[in-house]
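dumping this here before i forget
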Amino acid sequence: MRAMSSTLLQVWLFLAVSAGLAGAAVPPPPVNQFIGIPDTTFANLIEADCRFCHNQSPPIEAVDPTYLPDRHHVLLGQPIAQPSAAPYVAPGQRFYDCFNCHSLGPDPQTGRFTFEVFRDCTLCHRQLQGQPTVHHARPEAQAGQCVICHGNLVDDMDSGHYIPTYQPSRITPWPSNKPDGGPRGEGNCNFCHNTVALPFFDPTPVIDPASGVLVFRSAETHHATGFVQDAAKCVWCHNITPGINDAFSIRTCQNCHSVASLHNIQYDDQGDGIVPGQENPGFGHIGANSDCVGCHGFGTQAMAAPAAGPVTPYLTAASSSVATAGHSALISLYGTAFVSSPFGRPDLTHPCQVELTDPNGVRVSLAPLEVQPQEVRFRLPADLAPGTYRMRVVKAGRVSNPLALVVRPAPQLSSATCESGLVTLRGTGLGGHFPDSQGVTGVTAEIREMPGRGRPGPPQNIQVEGEILAWNDREVRARFAACAETITLHSIFGSITAPLEADKNSNKGSGKKIHPNR
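structure:
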């Protein structure tokens, strides 16, 4: 399965830029892999595969390289989630610190311990060989809460959504093997969600030439979700009631794929907005007549596309995935189905909103500044607290998949004092300290070095690093040989320089500059 990694790279790269492509009519099978999770398996991802989703590279600029580090660093001081993915959490430890993820390794040349930097998601988020993907091991997924990650392309289990109870008819879709389906398998889910130009009984995956995706059948993609390890969840997909024939099996599929969600999945292949029933075939469930036939059968008989509700929006990227608390920012979200016109009437177009969900689950709705078929622009408020947020587009109750936004704190100093070389810095957003981190965090003072033995010439300003005595998010204490005029704090969220003042709480003299040669 590791060999599939290079294919997955092609998948996510293609998905990231596909929102800007104008597609021709490409009939199934298989369905075009431009929205949602591709019809492939993800049980054995490697580092590069993870980054094509979690780096969220936008189509117009390089992603902020601090996105993933900041997403982890904002966890400092927060309660440790259970079960934790961090490799170095001590039993009973309640809050995250630097050494839950990072370690100190021995330097063979100096014999000292040095800060180890790693960039491998799988070191903490372990994927066991041959086991289901880590994503569906999350408690939300195990509880059948699908929308939190997939948006309304699917439905939550037991959400009360409509599932027909009437007797299946000739137009009722089957997952597969419909006895009176079309000559190519029309009327079955497998008509589109299947491998290219292969019989439906042949499970061999092949690469879809339109998207580069290694396409598997629905059986393989669903069995690789991670629920198959729990036999009690087989009934989520399989109707095992005695005496119930295959005609009713679609009703079990509708636990997650309802009539409402299926009819509102459509890809904007022309980039000019979606008009249900007037799109090219093969790009969704409500395009041309052939899409209707593909689900409902009757061979190639023409039929009118159903009137659709608000087409579900889908996000592929954001112009920025990192923001700083206290600062407003303009952000563009890219994707498809932001504009759709039911019955071809622009006056009935559903409005979009941007929804932010904070780390505690609190949601705030923001009115966009501009909505285009494949771009939504909005202004990020300046008063957001630090943390990782979910960004979604909501259109008439239909929510998109989320993208992550990291709001990092802005280091701020309220006071910077020095007494006999003991520097005390107080403020907010100071983060934590990595000992021996090769300058990642620390406190430096600019001093004026006077000429002396071994160094002739005029005085020079040099940077001296202090000995860290204590460090938390609100206070840092460091020791120097003497006091300087200015001090610079290097935190994981940025650097800040401030003038030093004498400690007003002390009666001792202070304020002397550092002269290391004296």
